[in-house]
Automatic annotation (TrEMBL):
Keywords: Hydrolase, Metal-binding, Metalloprotease, Mitochondrion, Protease, Transit peptide, Zinc
Species this protein is from: Eschrichtius robustus (California gray whale)
Cofactor binding, per record: Binds 1 zinc ion.
Cell compartments where the protein resides: Mitochondrion
Descriptive protein name: Peptidase M3A/M3B catalytic domain-containing protein
A biological process term (GO) from this entry: protein processing involved in protein targeting to mitochondrion
Recorded GO CC terms: mitochondrion
Alphabetized Pfam families for the sequence: Peptidase_M3
UniProt family annotation: Belongs to the peptidase M3 family.
MF term (GO), any: metalloendopeptidase activity
Domain of life: Eukaryota
Positions of the Peptidase M3A/M3B catalytic domain: 71-432
């Protein structure tokens, strides 16, 4: 019932209308902010050293910077991208402040002291105080390992760039990748030929068939049914229950498409008055490279794992056959919403599953077992520093959605929180463009670490000896 109350169902007519209006405004602001995080930043061409300009798009007398270039070996390129792309944008800052203010107004209207209190209602944490205690305790526990990770990353930077050994926020993604590749020979490009999109989808089909008795079939959509010609419609069919629903696969990059991998509902499943069941329809949206004439879409290990993760959400929507569509599938307590998708990541990293589908797109050779082992081991490199970053993101969002008015500007709060929870220096005149996504993504990143123990995973898998067996 609280799920309806946090939306204002218990209010009088006038306040309910106000709650609806605030929700609409929040959705609009959220969408605008998220889209704004992907707009390129412009800088006059002459302000960039000539020898690095070719790394960015040129537009007349300007250079467009549309990302952080985290994979580029040149430190100066990454530094320039970081400082330019994350340079505070007045429109984005205003949008963020309006968004936070309207969320706070909605929370107070429906009876909560802060938006964070409202968002945490019905979760394991229960309230922001518990969340902050957890984050601070986790940060303390991670501290020693994080320092060691940063020292290791700094050592690699000194090895490759002795003239500039100071560790900066644009360094960890690149140098941790170098460390992984050096220690385990886990360069993503070595794995891509084994993870064609078709092979990965076949792997999911095999997995779902053996776990749930479900098969995925491609269907021809009706005229006007899909919003882009490369969207594929999958029918989800159970061996005894029949058709369970539809998944629309919007997988490929295109102009003006949100740069966000996600799953969302078009129509929720529900029991109709005549006793029939309304079939769910969901979208699985990714941003994969388009196939070329003689080259299929090849996924990096991270892309493959993310495909499995998002398909876990989609399958949750197919299997969660509830009476009311308001509580179907992923419309469940946040604590549980990520469990099916995280479980799918375990399968994506188990050789007994991967070897069933990972084959070289040209030769048909299976992915060697030692390559899967190296990939899994490589994920442990700098894991503490990676999690420390997530702790910082989570703490920042708790503060942003805490007591209003905020004690200072969102940028000042970002600086103070980064210095407290991350350990690398804040770079003046930068602001993290992804704050809106942190709020939704960072807590699920941490919670499954608590929810999923090896023992519980074994039970869900059907046992360690045979991960295919249905529980």
């Amino acid at each position: 019932m609280f799920d309806f109350e946090i939306s204002g169902i218990h209010l009088d007519r006038e306040k309910r209308k106000r709650a609806v209006d605030l929700n609409v405004k929040i959705l609009d602001l959220s969408s605008a902010f998220l889209m704004g995080t992907h707009f390129p930043s412009r800088i006059e061409k002459h302000l960039l050293p000539e020898h690095i300009r070719h790394h960015f798009e040129l537009a007349g007398d300007h250079v467009l910077v549309d990302g952080l270039r985290a994979e580029v070996p040149d430190d100066l390129v990454r530094e320039a991208a970081y400082k330019i792309f994350l340079y505070p944008n007045a429109g984005q800052l205003k949008c963020l402040e309006e968004l936070l203010s309207n969320r706070d107004l909605l929370a107070k209207l429906v009876g909560y002291s802060t938006y964070s209190h409202r968002a945490l209602q019905g979760t394991m944490a229960k309230n922001p105080e518990t969340v902050m205690q957890f984050l601070e305790k986790l940060s303390d526990k991670l501290s020693e390992r994080t320092i060691k990770d940063f020292e290791m990353i700094r050592g690699m930077k000194m090895k490759l760039n002795p003239q500039n050994s100071e560790l900066m926020p644009w360094d960890p993604p690149y140098y941790s990748g170098v460390l992984r590749a050096e220690r385990y020979n886990s360069e993503p490009s070595l794995y891509c030929p084994f993870f064609s999109l078709g092979a990965c989808m076949e792997g999911l089909n095999i997995l779902f068939n053996r776990l749930f008795g479900i098969s995925l079939y491609v269907e021809q959509p009706a005229k006007g049914e899909v919003w882009c010609e490369d969207v594929r419609k999958l029918a989800v069919v159970h061996e005894s229950e029949g058709l369970l629903g539809y998944i629309y696969c919007d997988f490929f990059q295109r102009a003006d498409k949100p740069h966000q991998d996600c799953h969302f509902t078009i129509r929720g499943g529900r029991l109709k008055e005549d006793g029939d069941y309304q079939l769910p329809a969901v979208v699985l949206m990714l941003n994969l490279p388009c196939p070329a004439k003689d080259l299929p879409t090849l996924l990096t290990p991270g892309m493959m794992e993310n495909l499995f993760h998002e398909m876990g959400h989609a399958m949750h929507s197919m299997l969660g056959r509830t009476r009311y569509q308001h509580v179907t599938g992923t419309r469940c307590p946040t604590d549980f919403a990520e469990v099916p998708s995280i479980l799918m990541e375990y399968f994506a990293n188990d050789y007994r599953v991967v070897h069933q589908f990972a084959r070289h797109y040209q030769t048909g050779q299976s992915l060697p077992r030692n390559m899967v082992s190296r990939l899994c081991e490589s994920k442990k490199v700098c894991a503490a520093a990676d999690m420390q970053l997530q702790v910082f993101y989570a703490a920042l969002d708790q503060i942003y959605h805490g007591k209003h008015p905020l004690r200072s500007s969102t940028t000042d709060i970002l600086r103070d929180t980064q210095e407290k929870f991350y350990g690398l220096p804040y770079v003046p005149n930068t602001g993290h463009v992804g704050s809106e996504r942190w709020y939704w993504d960072s807590h699920p990143t941490l919670k499954p670490c608590v929810l999923i123990s090896p023992g519980s995973v074994r039970k869900l898998r059907g046992g360690e000896e045979c991960p295919w067996v249905r529980a």
